[in-house]
Structure formats: structure tokens, C-alpha cells
Write a structure and sequence with these properties.
By secondary structure, this protein is mostly helical. It folds into two domains: 214 residues, Rossmann fold (3-Layer(aba) Sandwich); 83 residues, Tyrosyl-Transfer RNA Synthetase, CATH 1.10.240.10. The protein contains 14 helices and five strands. Helix 8 packs across helix 9 and helix 11 crosses helix 13. The longest helix has 30 residues. 36% of the residues are buried.
Length: 328
Amino acid sequence: MSEKKRIVSGMRPTGALHLGNLHGALANWINMQDDYDCFFFIADWHALTSDYEDPGNIARFTENMMIDWLGAGLDPEKSTLFVQSAVVSHAELFLLLSMITPVPWLERNPTYKEQIEALDNKDLSTFGFLGYPVLQAADIIIYRANGVPVGIDQAPHIELTREIARRFNHLYGHVFPEPETILTETSKILGTDRRKMSKSYNNAIYLSDPPEEIRKKTAQMITDPQRVRKSDPGDPDVCNVFTFHRFYSPAVEREEINAACRKAAIGCVDCKKKMAERLVGYLAPIRERIGHLRQDTNLVRDIIDRGNRRAAEEAAITMQRVRDAVKI
């Protein structure tokens, strides 16, 4: 049997994980565990690129994110789960890669200008923010990754990582494989107000939300904006609640709701209630596992420690090759 290809990906610890995180990345990671040698890390250093003035929550968010990961289905027996800052070799490789990465490569990064404009309430005129793609490249190639699972919007970041690896290999001899972009299908799920689901918008449904909180948030969801009265026919194609039905309700029920909505045979309140119960049922096992893990923080920390050690061992192999190549 051929050896599994290795993939690497990370997530910034910015708070409790919600349905957008689950369907945007986490579900794909979970599904890839049996087919790849997976390294998944909590990118706490990356969180400092925008939150350097207020780092107080990062450690707490890091442990909570690991709990959410495990609750959702990441398996430490199948994947290496670790914390970025616990593997200091990332910083050493970042330093060396920063010596060879041209500044124009970073300035043309499409996310750089977008983030500067979107986060205009923060001072992002730092070297760390400009250079975070170099740290991202270090995060990936230090594990000699064959690929990185991303959505289409993140593909330019992986291409930059490939360019940095290629430049290092050209200057010092072949050390790094150029990681492939593994495009994954990301299911877009909006927040309760039809904007992008986000903690900052206060429109998110979290993996750990109890049933009553889920029902409360669902009751506040915006439906078809053109449907003013219950007697008005609705259009499920533009209704955010029906999008949730597509994720969480069985096909027969979806078809019934679709037809009933278009004939005004079901009102939005009843439609929301049906969806809420399906979502409560879907999240129940995840919420239960999260609850158990929160009561056993020693187990969680042991999983983190084991993942950190495994990641550090792999990173050390790479860094010895890097030092030999650079002759330092």
C-alpha cells in the first residue's frame, strides 16, 4: 500500500466555532483523516497579526478550539493536532524564508489590501501583518506537506507558498516539496441575518449552543424578504432558513417544505421550528462530546501535548535539512 500523502492546514483561535467554521473547513478536514497524513494546527501566532494589542484571550480560545475540533470529529489517533507556538521551529524557518522573499510578492497578496480596508479600526501597518504569508509558508513546508486543503478564495496563498519553496530550493538545493492546492468544496452557510456568519456580527450559531439557544436564534432568522404575510407564497430559493433545511433536514421533508412554502401552506414560524429541531438533533452529539471534554481538561491538554511533540519531531527533521542547506 502506498504511503499516504501529507496535508497541513490551520485555523486562527478567535473564539467558539460556529456552523460557518464547520462547513467552511472543519468538515472537510474530518473527511480527509482516513485518506491523508493530516497535520492540523491552531494558529495562535497568526492571531497576533491583527490582535497583537489584546492577546489575553488567545490561550483560552486555543484550548476551547481544540475542544470544538475534537467534539466535531477530529481524531488525535488519525491526525496530528497541535498548537503553532509550541513548535518554535516555525519561527526559525519563518526568519530564514523572510530573508529570501521579495517584498513585492507580499504586497501583491490580494488579502493584504482587503484586510487593511476591512479592519480599518486596527493599525495593521506592521511587518508581521505584511509578512504573515511567509509565516504561513513556513507552517506548511516545515512538515514537507504534499498539499493544503483550501477553498478557491485561499488558492493564491498556496501559490505564494509554492513560489517561496521554489525559490529556497533554487538557492540552496532541493529541501521542500512544492505543496499542491487541494481545492475542497466549501458549503456556504450564512448567519441568522443573511450576512456572513461571524462572531463579530453576532449572527452565529455555535457548535456548543444548547437547544434553547438554537431555537431562539432560529426564531430570529430572516426568511424570504418578499414574504410579508403568512398567506403570501414564499420562495425557498432566496430563504436562508430553507438553506439550513438543505443541510440538516432529510430530502423528503425538504421537498414537502419547498412545495408548501411556494403555496403558502406553511408559515415561516412553523418552517423555522422544524429546522430548529433538525439542527438541535444534528448538533446534539457534537455538543455532548464538547461538554464531556470541557469536564476533562487534562485529557485535552494531553492530546495537545502529544500533538505538539509529534509536530516538533517532524519539524526538527526538516530544520536539520534546512540548516545543512543554508550552511548555518
